Amino acid sequence: MTAKQEATPDLKSVKSADKKEKDYGKYFQAPSLKDAKKRGKEEISVHYDFAIPEEMKEIGKGHHYLIRTFGCQMNEHDTETMAGILEAMGYTATEDELEASVVLFNTCAIREGAEDKVFGELGHMKRIKRNNPNLILGLCGCMSQEEKVVSRVLKTYDQVDMIFGTHNIHRLPVLLRDAMFSKEIVVEVWSKEGDIIENMPKTRTGDTKAWVNIMYGCDKFCTYCIVPYTRGKERSRLPEDVIAEVRELARQGFKEVMLLGQNVNAYGKDIEGRKYGLGDLMDELRKIDIPRIRFTTSHPRDFDDHLIEVLAKRGNLVEQIHLPVQSGSSEVLKKMARKYTREHYMELVRKIKAAIPDVSLTTDIIVGFPGETEEQFLETLSLFKEVEYDSAYTFMYSPREGTPAAVMADSVPEEVKKSRLHRLMEVQNEISLKKHQEMLGQTYELLVESESRKNSEVLIGRTRTGKLVHVKADNSLIGKLVHVTITDAKTFTLYGELVTKVEV
Ligand code: 5AD
Ligand code: SF4
Q: Count of CB atoms within 10 A of residue 330's CB?
């Protein structure tokens, strides 16, 4: 650990989290979005010395843990790390909160709705904590990086025993110890972070698909987005560490890897002394004997020609790209600080389609950004018709305190946002259905993932392009690659018939 990280709590941030300026004692280091905004020039250190303190190694024996995960794949993967740490301390997983000795809420701050959900569930934990006072209830993830959240929890949710931030995950054993032995709430949220902790244990969900972080944080500061504040500055893992992890997953028999980062196209920019980007990394990962490699999330601004060239080599690099556009209007994009225009985005789409004609493109879009006019929204509709995405994640703009857009004038009324979302989804659904219908009668490679929840004789899998296909087959094929011919197409699902009965 660096000296900076071991520093005692900063009183300024304590005050910012608690308006009453009460002294919460020695286990208190609260967040500050203002500090989080600053991007330091310090070098990024990589630590390979993670260890569970001796006295915590057996503490969980005979006890259970439960982690409730909200939000994105990055959070899901952080949960796998926290599960790994807790299991290294002897805890076993449970789905039953009444049985758990440790319950963690790994939270999401991206939209207000996500936060409301967490507060609702935290309220529900009050009764459970009353019946089991030894239960340790922890709040972590993106919400804990916001001072207004920490302040609200301190004032009204006394069932919470500890709060820790997205940069403090490796401190979980120590924080848990402090929470067990202290009567005070334990709060440790670092707002600035420059380090990467490499060798934390992980308990992965499933043995077919795996998430692999390639970078952390985001420096883009899109004006609507809280992520650069909650996840800190861009930090890339070293290529050799990523490659070693993917090799090990291949050796263990995993079939698919999803590379994760908030802005993966900035991969490598922060690695001193090397000119190495996402294209270079993909070109090396391509040579590993694992059937499928995907990545998310891309930023159109940094998506370069070299990456397109490498993706066009295919092999285990699948024909699917998630390319968030956010708006079809260059004026709105400017206010969002996306740093590209509609024309630049369309040119990128053209290049990608020329290099990979059967590519499946998906996107994220926000409707109702402050000041978005009907004409500007129509530009989004027209962009959707031009690009023809395979599917889209559509969101209504939600103001996030501390971001520049939250104080922009001309907020769009809720009903207008709703109606725009609905109109956009109608356009997209038509395109999705058309694209599915074009697949009828064709044969695709499918990675079988699970049984259908509705019918145990039906299995669900995904094509290389990420499309869900239902197929009647024996469940011994779960985790295997097979071939299916598409026999029926609906807006959100495809139905297929097994061609090969064994793994291809
Ligand atoms: N309001 C609505 N949607 C948002 N997103 C990010 N911030 C906000 C916000 N304040 C969306 C973006 C991003 C996705 C993960 O969430 O579309 O790509
Ligand atoms: Fe948020 Fe923009 Fe960074 Fe994506 S690129 S995480 S939308 S700031």
A: 16
Q: Is the dihedral of CA 262, 264, 268, 269 positive or negative?
A: negative
Give the residue carrying structure tokens 């900063």: 10
Residue 27 Cα, ligand 1 centroid: separation in angstroms? Answer: 33
CA 19 – ligand 1 centroid, Å: 29
Q: How many CB atoms lie within 10 A of CB 41?
A: 6
3-state secondary structure of 328: coil
pTM of the entire predicted model: 0.93
Where do we find the tokens 């935290």? 122
CATH 3.40.50.2300 residue ranges for the chain: 11-188
Domain with CATH 3.30.750.200 in the chain: 346-438
Q: Which CATH number fits domain 11-188: 3.40.630.30, 3.20.20.100, 3.40.50.2300, 3.40.50.300?
A: 3.40.50.2300
CATH code: domain 443-501 is 2.40.50.140
pLDDT at residue 44 above 90? no
Of all protein residues, the one whose alpha carbon is nearest to atom 12 of ligand 1 is 364
The fold for domain 206-318 equals Transcription Regulator spoIIAA (3.30.750)
Cβ of residue 366 lying under 6 Å from some atom of ligand 1: yes
| pLDDT tens-digit series, residues 220-264 | 999 999 999 999 999 999 999 999 999 999 999 999 999 999 999
Atom of ligand 2 nearest to the CA of 263: 5
| Cβ burial 283-302 (10 Å sphere, 16+ → b, else e) | bebbebebbbbbbbbbbbbb
| Amino acid identity at 498 | L
Task: Please tell me the predicted confidence (pLDDT) of residue 182.
Answer: 86
Looking only at the bridges linking them, the beta strands covering 162-164 and 136-141 are: parallel
